[in-house]
C-alpha cells in the first residue's frame, strides 16, 4: 500500500510524541497512540498506523544488536564488545550473542541496518568475487 505524504507526516508527528527529550521511546505512549488512532479513525488511519508502526519497528531494531561468531566468545570478550557497542549506540542497547559455525572464523555484528562483517566467510566470498 502506498502511503500518502499526509499520512507519513502524521505518523512522524505521532512517533516524535512517543519519545522523550533524550530520544528514548516509551511503550506506554506507543500503545496509547495506536489505541487512540484506532478509536478516532482519522482519514487514512490505516496508512498512518502502518507508517507509525514501521517507524517504531526501525527504532526498536536500532536499539538491538545481534552478534554472531564462529566460536563461543569468552566472557571478557563479550563484556568488552558489550561496552564498546553501548558506548557507540547508548546504554539501552540490548545485545544478543549467537553461535554461527558457517562464518568459519571471526564475527558479524548487526545493529539496526548497520552490519560489520569480519568473518572468514565474508572475506572468502569477497576474494571469490575478485578472482571470478
Automatic annotation (TrEMBL):
<dbReference type="GO" id="GO:0016020">
    <property type="term" value="C:membrane"/>
</dbReference>
<keyword id="KW-0406">Ion transport</keyword>
<keyword id="KW-0066">ATP synthesis</keyword>
<keyword id="KW-0472">Membrane</keyword>
<keyword id="KW-0813">Transport</keyword>
<dbReference type="Pfam" id="PF00213">
    <property type="entry name" value="OSCP"/>
</dbReference>
<dbReference type="InterPro" id="IPR020781">
    <property type="entry name" value="ATPase_OSCP/d_CS"/>
</dbReference>
<keyword id="KW-0375">Hydrogen ion transport</keyword>
<dbReference type="InterPro" id="IPR000711">
    <property type="entry name" value="ATPase_OSCP/dsu"/>
</dbReference>
<protein>
    <submittedName>
        <fullName>F0F1 ATP synthase subunit delta</fullName>
    </submittedName>
</protein>
<dbReference type="GO" id="GO:0046933">
    <property type="term" value="F:proton-transporting ATP synthase activity, rotational mechanism"/>
</dbReference>
Amino acid at each position: 500500500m502506498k502511503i500518502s505524504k499526509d499520512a507519513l507526516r502524521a505518523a512522524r508527528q505521532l512517533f516524535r510524541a512517543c519519545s522523550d527529550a533524550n530520544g528514548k521511546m516509551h511503550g506506554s505512549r506507543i500503545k496509547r497512540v495506536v489505541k487512540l488512532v484506532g478509536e478516532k479513525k482519522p482519514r487514512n488511519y490505516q496508512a498512518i498506523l502502518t507508517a507509525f508502526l514501521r517507524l517504531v519497528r526501525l527504532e526498536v531494531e536500532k536499539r538491538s544488536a545481534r552478534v554472531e561468531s564462529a566460536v563461543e566468545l569468552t566472557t571478557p570478550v563479550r563484556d568488552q564488545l558489550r561496552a564498546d557497542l553501548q558506548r557507540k549506540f547508548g546504554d539501552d542497547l540490548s545485545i544478543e550473542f549467537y553461535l554461527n559455525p558457517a562464518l568459519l572464523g571471526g564475527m558479524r555484528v548487526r545493529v539496526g541496518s548497520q552490519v560489520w562483517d569480519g568473518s572468514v566467510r565474508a572475506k572468502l566470498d569477497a576474494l571469490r568475487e575478485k578472482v571470478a
